[in-house]
Design brief:
CATH topology of the largest domain: BirA Bifunctional Protein, domain 2
Distance between the termini: 44 Å
Structural class: alpha+beta
Bound molecules: glycyl-adenosine-5'-phosphate
Number of helices: 18
Strand content: 15-25%
CATH architecture of the largest domain: 2-Layer Sandwich
Number of domains: 3
C-alpha cells in the first residue's frame, strides 16, 4: 500500500474510532475545520500536557499564561500582521479554483527534485555496491540539466518572494506551464495578496475602529504581557513565558487533513535573553526541542532540521523541526531567534517602555527572544501518522494498531473479563474502580477476547487487563501489551505500579530533565 492510500485510511480511521470528525458534519462540514471526538480530545490533552509540563514544570525560569484570543487591534499593526501577513493567491479561470501561487511553484520545484531523485535511485539499483552517488550527480547529463534548472528557478522564485514581486510569480507559473490540477489549463488570473487574519467587529456599533482580529498566533499575547509577568513573577533574564491556545488563519489552500487548518491550536514559548546571548540560546532550544520529540520513542529518521537560509527581516537564525508525514517531510515546529523585533515594535506603538533592568550591571535593555512554536494539531497528526499501522500477523490475520507512545495514548488500560459470568464482570468492575482514579480505563465485555484486543489495538490502548478464573482464585490478572502482544501475569497488589511504570508521563519527564541545562 502506498503512503497516499495509507493516509486516506488513517483519515477514515480517525473518524470511525472517534478521534476526529469534520466540523458541523450534518451540514456537510466546513472546509479545514475539524472537531475532536471522545478519543481525540484525550490524545490532544495528553500532547498538550506533555508539552506544558516539559516547558513549565521542568524549567524553573519558564512560567505559563493564558491570554485572551481577542487583543487590541494595534497589536497586529505593531506585529506586522496587518500589513504583511499575506499569502499570494491566484485563481484558475476555468476551474474557478483558488491556489497559493508560492505553493504552486514550490510543488513544481519539488517535481523537478523528484525527477533527480528518481534518476539517482535508478542508477543506484543498476550499479549496486559500486555506485558513486556524488560522481553520478556531478556527471550524469540529465541530472546536471535538472539541477541547473532547479537552481536557477529557485533563485528566481526566492527573489520574487523577497521583493514581493507578484507579476514575476505569475510569469514563473506561466513560463513553467504550471497547470491547475482540476482543469488542466494554464489560464490564470493575476497574483494578488490576501491577508490571512479573520476580522470581526467588537461592540454593537460597527465602524472601522471597531475591527478586531482573531489572533493568528498566540505569541503576541506573550509579548504584550512581558512586563506584567516580568514584574509580578520577579523574573530574571533569561526567562520564558509559555502559552497554549487557539489561533486562526484564513488559509487559502487548506489541505492534508489537520495539517493546515483555519482554526488550530499552538503551543508557543518565548524565551527572553540578553542581547548577544541569543544564538547560544537558539542552539540550546533547537536541541532541547528535538530531544522532546525523540523522548516519545518515535525513531530518529522521522525528524530532521531544516535551517532557514533566507531569514525574515526580524530574525537572525531560524530552523524548523520537520517530520516525515505520509506526504513527505514537512514543518512540525519552528524555532526562531526573533531579536528584539516584537518587544521594540510594541514599545514603539504602545508608548510603554518594555525593558528589562539588569541590577547586576545596572543597565536596561529590550531583551532578545528565542521562540519555539509548534501546532498541537500538527503534532497530533505526526503522532498518528507514525502510530497507524496495518499489520499482517504470524497467523495470517491482520490487525490495525495505533502505536501511540504509551504516555500519550488516550485510554491507558482496557479491563476485560474473559467471560460474562462466574463473577468475572463483578471482579473486573472492582479492578476498574481501583485503577480509574489513576488512569483512563475502558471496560469491555462484548465479543471474544480476540476481538476485544483488536478493538483496543485500533485505538492505541497500551495495556489490556484480562480477568479470568485465576483472578477469582488468586488475584492474578493477565496484562497483554499492545505492541508485542506478549502477556504478563501480575498480582492485583502490584497492578497499579506495574501500569504506572509503563504509561505514566513522569519517567519520560525525568529523562528529559537530564537534558535541561547541558546544552547551554
Ligand atoms: N509565532 C510563530 C508562528 O506562528 P508559524 O510557523 O506560522 O509561526 C508555528 O506557526 C507552528 O504552528 C507551525 O510550525 C505549525 O506547527 C503550526 N501551524 C501554523 N499554521 C497552521 C495551520 N494553518 N494549521 C495547523 N497548524 C499550523
Amino acid at each position: 500500500m502506498n503512503q497516499e492510500e495509507l493516509f486516506k485510511n488513517l483519515i477514515s480511521h480517525c473518524k470511525e474510532y472517534g478521534f476526529i470528525f469534520p466540523s458541523s458534519e450534518i451540514y456537510d462540514g466546513l472546509a479545514a475545520v475539524y472537531d475532536y471526538g471522545q478519543l481525540g480530545v484525550l490524545l490532544k490533552n495528553n500532547i498538550r500536557d506533555y508539552w506544558w509540563r516539559s516547558m513549565v514544570q521542568l524549567h524553573e525560569n519558564i512560567v505559563g499564561i493564558d491570554a485572551a484570543i481577542f487583543m487590541h487591534p494595534t497589536v497586529w499593526k505593531a506585529s506586522g500582521h496587518v500589513d504583511a501577513f499575506n499569502d499570494p493567491l491566484i485563481d484558475n479561470k476555468d476551474s474557478k479554483k483558488r491556489y497559493r501561487a508560492d505553493q504552486l511553484i514550490e510543488e513544481h520545484l519539488q517535481k523537478i527534485q523528484d525527477k533527480i531523485d528518481k534518476e539517482i535511485d535508478k542508477a543506484a539499483k543498476r550499479f549496486g555496491e559500486t555506485f558513486n552517488r556524488q560522481l553520478f550527480i556531478e556527471t550524469n547529463a540529465r541530472v546536471v540539466e535538472y539541477k541547473q534548472k532547479l537552481n536557477s528557478l529557485h533563485a528566481r522564485y526566492n527573489k520574487a518572494m523577497n521583493e514581493n514581486n507578484l507579476a514575476e510569480l505569475k510569469a514563473i507559473i506561466e513560463e513553467e506551464k504550471i497547470v491547475c490540477p482540476i482543469s488542466g489549463t494554464c489560464n490564470w488570473t493575476d497574483v494578488r495578496q490576501f491577508n490571512l487574519m479573520f476580522s470581526t467587529q467588537i461592540g454593537s456599533v460597527s465602524n472601522e475602529s471597531d475591527t478586531i482580529y482573531l489572533r493568528p498566533e498566540t505569541a503576541q499575547g506573550i509579548f504584550v504581557n512581558f512586563l506584567n509577568v516580568y514584574k509580578t513573577g520577579r523574573m530574571k533574564v533569561p526567562f520564558g513565558i509559555a502559552q497554549t491556545g487557539k489561533a486562526f488563519r484564513n488559509e487559502i489552500v487548506a489541505r492534508q487533513f489537520i495539517f493546515r487548518m483555519r482554526e488550530f491550536e499552538q503551543m508557543e514559548m518565548q524565551f527572553f535573553v540578553k542581547p548577544g546571548d541569543e544564538l547560544q540560546w537558539f542552539d540550546y532550544w533547537k536541541k532541547i526541542r528535538l530531544e522532546w520529540h525523540k523522548a516519545l520513542g518515535i525513531p530518529d529518521e522521522y525528524y530532521r532540521y531544516h535551517d532557514h537560509e533566507k531569514l525574515a527581516h526580524y530574525a537572525n537564525a531560524a530552523t524548523d523541526i520537520e517530520f516525515r508525514f505520509p506526504f513527505g517531510f514537512k514543518e512540525l515546529e519552528g524555532i526562531h531567534s526573533r531579536t528584539d523585533f516584537d518587544l521594540s515594535a510594541h514599545q514603539q506603538y504602545s508608548g510603554k517602555k518594555l525593558q528589562y533592568f539588569d541590577a547586576e550591571n545596572n543597565e536596561s535593555y529590550v531583551p532578545y527572544v528565542i521562540e519555539t512554536s509548534i501546532g498541537l494539531d500538527r503534532m497530533f497528526l505526526a503522532v498518528l501518522s507514525y502510530a497507524y499501522n496495518e499489520e499482517k500477523l504470524n497467523d495470517g490475520t491482520q490487525r490495525i494498531v495505533l502505536r501511540i507512545p504509551y504516555i500519550l495514548a488516550p485510554i491507558k488500560v482496557a479491563i476485560l473479563p474473559l467471560v460474562k459470568r462466574d463473577g468475572m464482570p463483578e471482579k473486573a468492575s472492582e479492578i476498574m474502580k481501583m485503577l480509574q482514579p489513576y488512569f483512563y480505563c475502558q471496560y469491555d465485555e462484548k465479543d471474544t477476547i480476540g476481538r476485544r484486543y483488536r478493538r483496543q489495538d485500533a485505538i492505541g490502548t497500551p495495556l489490556c487487563v484480562t480477568i479470568d478464573q485465576v483472578t477469582l482464585e488468586q488475584d492474578i490478572v493477565t496484562v497483554r501489551h499492545r505492541d508485542t502482544m506478549k502477556q504478563d501475569n501480575v498480582h492485583l497488589s502490584e497492578l497499579k505500579n506495574y501500569i504506572y511504570q509503563m504509561v505514566a508521563i513522569e519517567p519520560t519527564l525525568e529523562k528529559l530533565n537530564q537534558y535541561a541545562g547541558i546544552f547551554a
